[in-house]
From TrEMBL:
Enzyme class: hydrolase
Designated name of the protein: Ribonuclease R
Residue ranges with Basic and acidic residues bias: 110-122, 727-738
One GO cellular component term: cytosol
Organism of provenance: Novosphingobium subterraneum
Region (Disordered): 93-122, 727-762
Catalyzed reactions per annotation: Exonucleolytic cleavage in the 3'- to 5'-direction to yield nucleoside 5'-phosphates
Sequence ranges assigned to domain S1 motif in this UniProt record: 637-718
Subcellular location: Cytoplasm
Gene Ontology molecular function, alphabetical: exoribonuclease II activity; RNA binding
Length: 762
C-alpha cells in the first residue's frame, strides 16, 4: 500500500470511527503523533486527541500504549509480536501487548521468515523472542513478516539466586552474553544458590524479575544440559498423542514377503561405546574383479514415522536429536529411537538398504536402494574394531570392510576434500553424573571407515534421486564468499604468503597451502584463518554442491533416527523407486513417502531443520563449555598451555590445548602500555614494545576464574608482575618488557561480589 495522502482524512479533531479507520489503514505504527499529523491537529487539538484516545481505550475500542494503538480484536499493520511456539519449524507469535476487556484469546500469527540469501544465517527465532513485524490477513488467519528482532526481549531468564549484604535478591544469569545481574522483586520461595526461571514482574525495567520456577542445584548432575535446553528453547517433552502413536507404530509387522531378506549377511554396526541408538550398519565382500560389493543398511524410520502424524509433527519441530554428555533429547520417542528403529545385534529390523558396487579405484560405479529386513551380526565399539584389525584378530567380514575402505580412501584422496584438524572434546561422567574425565577424542581408522561408507551412501542417495528427477534435500556447503576470501588474502599477506583470487578456489588449494607450512605455530595460525573463511553448511532443495567434501551432489541419508533431513530423503526414495509397503493400520497415516506439503515446498522445511541444527550445535557447545568450566573450577591458579583463538580490542580469547574451553585474557592484564588492535591481521600490538599477540599463538596462561554456570573462563599472564611467558612465538625472540597487573573487576556496589563482568565472544 502506498504512503497515505495528507488529505485522505478530514482535517480537525477526528471522531471515534475516523480514528479506527486510520489505525486499520495505516502502514506504520499508529501512535498519537501519527494520528495528529494525519488530521492536521495543532495546539489544544492535540490535548483533546489525547483525551479522546484515553476514552476510547477505556471504552474498549482501542488497545495500545503511548507509541502505538490498534483496534480491539484486530492486529495493527506494524506491531511488536512475541514468539510463543515453534510449530513444525515455523514460529507462531501473538501480539506482545494483548489485554482485551472481554478476555478473548490473542490472535496467533504464523511468522514467515526470509529465505535463501535474504536471510541472515544467525540464530533462529526462539520461544520468548520479540520481533517488530509487518502483519497481513491470509484467509482466516494472520501472517507476520519480521522487520527486526528486538534485543533483550526474552520473557524468561534462567539464573542463580544470589543475595547481597542487605538481603536483596539478584539473578545471576547463566548466559555469558548477559553481562549484569538483574534485581529480583519476587523470590517466589527460592533460596540463595538455587537455579531458577524468572520473568519480568512488570512492564517497567524497574519492576525487576519474579521467580516462576525453581530448578534446584545449578551444579547438580544433569543441570548443565537442562540449562542449555531452557536457554535455547529445545522441545524435550513429547506430547501424549505422539507417544501413543509411536507405541502403535512400533507394532507394525515387517511384511517379510515385501522386503529384501538380508538376514544372512554378517552386517555390523560400528559406533561409539556409549551410543544411545544405532542408525547404520555396513558389510562388504570382494567382487572378484579387484573391487567390492558393499551394503550400507540404515534404519527404516520412514516405515514407522508417517508424514502428517503426531510423531512426525514432533520430529519436524525438533529437527534433530540433541546430544549432551549426560542425556540425549531425541528427535523420536524412545520406543522408536532406542528400540524398534535402532539396529540392535541379533534382532530383526526394518532397514533401507543401499547396495554399492565399488571398483578397484574406489569409485562407486553402481547403486540400488531396497527396503529390507536385516539382523545385525554385532554392534562393535570403534576402539574394539580398531583393536581387532591392529592385532590381526579381525573376522573376515571386518577385514573385508577395511579392504573396501582402502579403495574408498584412494578415491577420497583423489578428490582431496578439505583437511582441517578439528579435535573433538569428550566429556566422560561417572555413575553419579560427575565429571570423570575431559579429553580430546582419539581419531582412529575405524572412524574413517564408517565415515567413508556413509559418504558413499549419501552421494548415492542424492544421485539416485536426481536420476528420477525427484525432490532432494541436499546437504549444501558453499565455497567461501569473496568477502571472506579477501579477508583471508589480507591476513595471509601478513605472513608474506599470497592467495590469488583470480584462480578457482578449491579445497585442494587450502590443503596444499597448509601442507607447505613447516612451522607448526604458523600452520596453526593459518589453519584457524582457513577455518574462519568457510561458510556454514545447511539444507536446501537446490543443489550448490559440498565444497568441503569436494562433491557435486550430496544428501544426508544415513541418520534418520536423529536427523529429519535424512527422513525426508528416505521418503523421497520411497516415492521415486516404488518402495511403498502395504498399507498400515487405519489409525496411522497410510503413506511413508513425501507429503504433498513437503513435495510442494521443500525450501520451507529445509530452512526449519537448518535452524534446528544450529540451535542444537549451540546448545551442545554451551553444555560442553559448562562441563569444562566445572572441571577447571578446582584448578584455578594453575598454569596451562593455551592457544589464542580470538583477538579483540578488549583482549584475547584463548583455549586450553588438549582440553578446550575458551577464556578471556583482558587487555588490561597484558601490561601498562597501550595495545592497538589490527583487525585485518587479527593481532594486538604494543605501542612501545611492539610485542604482538596473534591468532593461533601459543601462550602459558594462569587460570584466574572458571564459572560453571556460564561456562566462562578468565586467564591472566603467568607472571603478572613481569609479563607474559611465551612458549612459542613466530618471528624470533622479543626483549622482555615489564608488566603490571591489570585491574579487572566489575562487581557493582550492592551486588554479590562473585558476579563478574564477562567479555563477549567474537
Amino acid at each position: 500500500m502506498p504512503p497515505m495522502a495528507k488529505n485522505k482524512f478530514p482535517q480537525g479533531l477526528p471522531t471515534r470511527q475516523q480514528v479506527l479507520d486510520f489505525i486499520a489503514q495505516s502502514d506504520e505504527p499508529a501512535g498519537k503523533r501519527e494520528i495528529a499529523k494525519a488530521f492536521g491537529l495543532k495546539g489544544t487539538e492535540k490535548i483533546a486527541l489525547k483525551t479522546l484516545l484515553k476514552d476510547m481505550a477505556e471504552e474498549g475500542l482501542i488497545d495500545g500504549n503511548r507509541s502505538a494503538f490498534h483496534a480491539m480484536g484486530g492486529v495493527p499493520r506494524v506491531t511488536v509480536l512475541r514468539i510463543v511456539e515453534i510449530d513444525e519449524g515455523e514460529p507462531v507469535a501473538i501480539p506482545d501487548s494483548w489485554q482485551p476487556e472481554d478476555a478473548s484469546p490473542p490472535p496467533r500469527l504464523r511468522v514467515v521468515e526470509p529465505r535463501g540469501k535474504a536471510r541472515d544465517r544467525g540464530p533462529a527465532l526462539r520461544v520468548g523472542d520479540r520481533i517488530l513485524a509487518r502483519t497481513e490477513e491470509a484467509g482466516k488467519g494472520w501472517l507476520a513478516h519480521p522487520m527486526k528482532k528486538i534485543q533483550g526481549g526474552e520473557e524468561q531468564l534462567m539464573g542463580v539466586v544470589e543475595l547481597d549484604g542487605t538481603g536483596k535478591g539478584w539473578l545471576a544469569p547463566v548466559d555469558k552474553r548477559v553481562r549484569n545481574a538483574v534485581p529480583i522483586s519476587d523470590l517466589g520461595g527460592a533460596e540463595a544458590g538455587q537455579l531458577v526461571l524468572a520473568e519480568p514482574a512488570g512492564r517497567s525495567p524497574r519492576s525487576g524479575m519474579k521467580v516462576v520456577a525453581v530448578l534446584g542445584d545449578p551444579l547438580a548432575p544433569r543441570a548443565f544440559s537442562l540449562i542449555a535446553i531452557h536457554k535455547h528453547g529445545i522441545p524435550f517433552v513429547f506430547p501424549e498423542a505422539a507417544l501413543r502413536e509411536a507405541e502403535e507404530a512400533a507394532k507394525l509387522p515387517l511384511s517379510e514377503d515385501k522386503r529384501e531378506d538380508l538376514r544372512h549377511l554378517p552386517i555390523v554396526a560400528i559406533d561409539p561405546a556409549d551410543a544411545r541408538d544405532h542408525d547404520d550398519a555396513i558389510w562388504a565382500e570382494p567382487d572378484g574383479q579387484g573391487g567390492f560389493n558393499a551394503l550400507v543398511a540404515i534404519a527404516d524410520v520412514s516405515f514407522y514415522v508417517r508424514p502428517g502424524g503426531q510423531t512426525d509433527r514432533e520430529a519436524r519441530k525438533r529437527g534433530n536429536s540433541v546430544y549432551f554428555p549426560d542425556r540425549v533429547v531425541p528427535m523420536l520417542p524412545e520406543v522408536l529411537s532406542a528400540d524398534v528403529c535402532s539396529l540392535k545385534s541379533g534382532a530383526d529390523r526394518a532397514a533401507m538398504a543401499c547396495h554399492l558396487s565399488i571398483d578397484s579405484a574406489g569409485r562407486i560405479k553402481d547403486w540400488r536402494f531396497t527396503r529390507a529386513i536385516v539382523r545385525i551380526a554385532e554392534v562393535i565399539a570403534y576402539e574394539e574394531a580398531q583393536r581387532r584389525i591392529d592385532s590381526g584378530e579381525a573376522e573376515a567380514h571386518l577385514a573385508n570392510l577395511w579392504d573396501a575402505w582402502r579403495l574408498l580412501e584412494k578415491a577420497r584422496n583423489e578428490r582431496d576434500p578439505l583437511n582441517l584438524e578439528l579435535p573433538e572434546r569428550r566429556v566422560v561422567l561417572d555413575e553419579q553424573g560427575k565429571i570423570a574425565e575431559i579429553a580430546i577424542r582419539e581419531r582412529l581408522d575405524a572412524h574413517r571407515v564408517v565415515e567413508d561408507f556413509m559418504i558413499a551412501a549419501n552421494v548415492a542417495a542424492a544421485k539416485a534421486l536426481e536420476a528420477k528427477v525427484a525432490p532432494v534435500v541436499y546437504r549444501i556447503h558453499e565455497p567461501p564468499s569473496r568477502e571472506k576470501l579477501v579477508a583471508l588474502k589480507d591476513y595471509l599477506a601478513t605472513f608474506d604468503r599470497k592467495l590469488s583470487l583470480g584462480q578457482v578456489i578449491t579445497p585442494s588449494l587450502f590443503n596444499r597451502m597448509l601442507k607447505d607450512i613447516a612451522d607448526e605455530a604458523e600452520k596453526a595460525l593459518i589453519m584457524e584463518a582457513v577455518l574462519r573463511s568457510q561458510t556454514q553448511a545447511y539444507y536446501g532443495p537446490r543443489n550448490a554442491g559440498h565444497f568441503g567434501l569436494s562433491l557435486g551432489s550430496y544428501a544426508h541419508f544415513t541418520s534418520p533416527i536423529r536427523r529429519y533431513s535424512d527422513l525426508l530423503v528416505h521418503r523421497a526414495l520411497v516415492d521415486a523407486y516404488g518402495l511403498e509397503q502395504p498399507r498400515p493400520k487405519a489409525d496411522l497415516p497410510p503413506t511413508s513417502g513425501l507429503s504433498d506439503r513437503d513435495r510442494g515446498d521443500l525450501a520451507r522445511v529445509s530452512e526449519a531443520i537448518s535452524n534446528a541444527e544450529r540451535r542444537a550445535m549451540e546448545a551442545e557447545r554451551d553444555t560442553i563449555d559448562r562441563y569444562v568450566a566445572a572441571w577447571l573450577s578446582g584448578k584455578v591458579g594453575e598454569v596451562f598451555d593455551t592457544r589464542i583463538t580470538g583477538v579483540q580490542k578488549f583482549g584475547l580469547f584463548a583455549t586450553i590445548i588438549g582440553l578446550g574451553g575458551d577464556g578471556l585474557v583482558p587487555v588490561s592484564t597484558l601490561g601498562a602500555e597501550r595495545f592497538n588492535h589490527d583487525e585485518k591481521a587479527q593481532r594486538l600490538i604494543g605501542e612501545l614494545s611492539g610485542e604482538e599477540f596473534a591468532m593461533g599463538q601459543i601462550l602459558k596462561l594462569r587460570l584466574a576464574e572458571a564459572n560453571p554456570l556460564t561456562g566462562a573462563l578468565k586467564f591472566e599472564p603467568v607472571d603478572v608482575a613481569e609479563g607474559v611467558q611465551r612458549i612459542e612465538r613466530r618471528g624470533g625472540k622479543m626483549e622482555h618488557t615489564p608488566r603490571r597487573q591489570g585491574n579487572y573487576t566489575a562487581g557493582k556496589r550492592g551486588r554479590p561480589s562473585n558476579i563478574r563482568h564477562q567479555g563477549k565472544r567474537k
